[in-house]
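Write out the bound-state structure for zinc ion.
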Amino acid sequence: MARHTRHSTLTPWLVTALATALTGAAGCTPDATSAQSGTRTTPAPGAAGIGDTLHPGLGNGGYTVRHTDLALRFAEDLKTYTATTTLRGRATHALSRFDLDLTGTTVRSVTVDGHKTTWTRSGQELRVTPAGPVPSGRGFSVAVTVHAPVAGPEEAQKLGTTAIGMVRAKGVVQTINQPSGAHRIAAFADHPDQKAPTTITIAAPSRVNAIANGELTATRREGAYTVRRFESRQKLAPELIQIGVGHFTVVERRGPDGIKLRHALPTGHVNDLMPQLDTVVPKALRFLTRRLGPFPLRTYGIYATPMGGELETQSLTLLATEELTKDGMETNGSDAIVAHEISHEYFGNSVSPRRWSDLWLNEGHAVYYEGLWNQEARGTDPADAMKSAYRDATAQLRKQGPVADPRLGAFTPKDRAPYGWGAYQGGALVLYALRQKVDEATFRRIERAWVAEHRDSTAGTADFIRLASRVAGRDLGPFLRSWLYSTKLPAMPGHPDWHTS
Ligand SMILES: [Zn+2]
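---
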């Protein structure tokens, strides 16, 4: 999507789609025009990815996803599970074959429209060949059942990355999917650009509790098991799925503007944690809605686990129990982490990145609003943090690549590509520079328009540049691109005394 980067003017999606069509479909002669417009009638395989330059295998070409259903059944000891994902999709061109993303796990069955079908596996791709081609524009459903172990804590350590998938430790199960762990759990179109409304059903032994994104809409007993169904009416990217199973208590509250709050807290720690949550969460919600407009969700809460992690899993932020104690809040200032994660419900969850190189739109915003929160909560000046980030910028960006065009090769798995300095501090610097360039009222209008116009959708860097220019009433393209696509940042407007390394 980054048409102002070093990439060619053909969109990466089209390059991938064409390459796959040309090499993978013997006897087919698709032409560029029909492939692009989606009117190709000769069946061809869907592309293996959507053309994300940082994660080329993620997501799948040839179809859109209308709805995702994930049904999980855990073993009595919670060490293994069976998962069935059912995607309802629509073909964007006639499909002889299509892919889902899947790594690890044992495939038990694959059906298309209820009929058993043939499939093969190649790397992280599950290749599904229906009995007959799926015509362009036709809806279809594909269901994939897998069986797998829940990763233990040792395995989680070994991976050294945030994209673990499902992990079990200290008596709870949780998921850490970002950016590419969901397809370690079950088959998905594992890219935010293919997010869809999602139903998650968890069957777990009745001795433990279970929670997932969205609203609990049904509970039933099945012998020694309890089955709970959760609905996310807003589109949910697989990377933002949260599955909690274990000994925790769900506490409900009525939040500001009628937002329903529900927190899942380790049983026995409810009284330690709720006073902080009762103060910080409503305050952060009011702070953000005042700046940005209506909250994107009707239900929100925190899943506090002893295993820890900080992850903006949609409508159910994952946070370490120790961060939320009175002591943790006072010592670590973790109220700012809560504000950061809640801001992701706007930036990253409701407005999802179109490509992973757009990650600065998630993290840059979250860091920016965390700075404003700290200003309000403890009187710190956001300019101080920005001045020090600006000083480090050139050294960091030379290593990792520009803010909106990070170089994957610059990251090790431990760096959690593309979760580098550029997306966080670099992204916040871009927004700070924009705020210096335009006045406060205009900046606020840009931000509110961004989350309103792209609500429950996907958007990228070029969209942000366009929207900012339109709202400001002048072409901000050259200015923003000089910040987003350079390893040597321009002078900071309003701060001629700031220097970069
Ligand atoms: Zn973040």
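---
The CA atoms of residues 209 and 246 lie 5 Å apart.
Confidence is low (pLDDT under 50) at residues 1-38.
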